[in-house]
Amino acid sequence: MLHGVFTVQGPNGPETLQEQTGTVTSITDTSGSTWSLTVTSSDGTALTYVIDSGTSVDGGENGVSSISKNDTVHVLAVVSNGTADAKQVSDSTVMQANGQSWRPAPPAPPGSSSSSGTTTS
Question: What are phi and psi of 23, to 5 degrees?
Answer without folding.
Answer: -105, 135
